[in-house]
Amino acid sequence: MISEVPVLNVLLARWHQGHRTIAYPKGTPVLPDRLRGRPVLGPSPCPADCQACVEVCPTDAIELKNGRPRIDLNRCLFCPECERACPKATLRFTPEHRLAASSRDALVVDGGEYILAKTLDRKIRRIYGRSLKLRQVSAGGCNACEADVNVLTTVVFDLGRFGIQFVASPRHADGLLITGPVTENMRLALIKTYEAVPPPRVVIAVGACALSGGPFRDHPEVHNGAGGLLPIDLYIPGCPPHPLTILDGMLRLLGRIEKDG
């Protein structure tokens, strides 16, 4: 005979915990102020001949153009070194999590408009808009981006409620989600996995390594990300990107979110 006490305890615990899945994309998510998201440039001009932010950037993600910083988020590790080095607080990071873009060129912060990811064309959206199966490929990653991708399948984010799932075989997938700088040892495996996915394929690059090689850029055993080997449909910067950054990018790709950032 099953005791009623343990069952009652389970029901009480479930009632106490309440609803655990976040409402996103409905409403604004609550994120910590210390989250380093999209950088912005303030109105204060840079001091003459100041190179402080350029000199401290570990991945050469910053250059000066007309005396103003220009930040390439493909390379940016979202470390605070440039913000700390800036004597006029011209450059600072915000907790803005919306970062994903449809091209490398869009991932540049120079004081102009930041263009977020666009929806897939109508034909492909008709196929994948309600059900997208992805094969995740870790192409030499450190497991940070992989961990934030995996956390999307937990009850907090519940990626499956949007019809997005990760599958074990590329034969069952609609596209790839790639992390890591693409080491030489993973180059052929990545290409073969891509070729095994039935067309039309969707390719998502997650994290600075997959976008540009990250801190391993230009190493002789690294291919500086997936862009030189495969066509990328969605670029998600970060080191690693917050799970909401990844989720936001996916939903924009599928047309579930169309508002600007």
Pattern of helices and strands: HEHEEHEEHEHEEHEHEH
Unreliable sequence segments: none
Q: What's the count of strands?
A: 10
Strand coverage percent: 15-25%
Mean pLDDT: 91
Radius of gyration: 20 Å
Key phrases:
single chain; 261 residues; alpha/beta; Alpha-Beta Plaits; Rossmann fold; 2 domains; 5-stranded parallel beta sheet; 3-stranded antiparallel beta sheet; globular
Detailed description of the structure:
The chain is an alpha/beta fold and 261 residues long. It folds into two domains: 39-97, 2-Layer Sandwich (Alpha-Beta Plaits); 122-253, 3-Layer(aba) Sandwich (Rossmann fold). Helices cover 26% and strands 15% of the residues. The strands form three sheets. A five-stranded parallel sheet has the order 7-6-8-9-10, sandwiched between helices. It has a three-stranded antiparallel sheet with strand order 2-3-5, with no helix packed on it. A two-stranded antiparallel sheet has the order 1-4. Helix 5 links the parallel strand 6 and strand 7 (164-166). The chain starts with a helix and ends in an 8-residue tail after the last helix. The model has no long low-confidence stretch (mean pLDDT 91).
Structure summary:
By secondary structure, this protein is an alpha/beta fold. The chain has helices at residues 4-17, 52-56, 81-85, 122-128, 144-150, 184-196, 208-212, 243-253; strands at 39-41, 62-65, 68-72, 91-93, 108-109, 132-138, 164-166, 175-179, 202-206, 234-236. The termini are far apart.
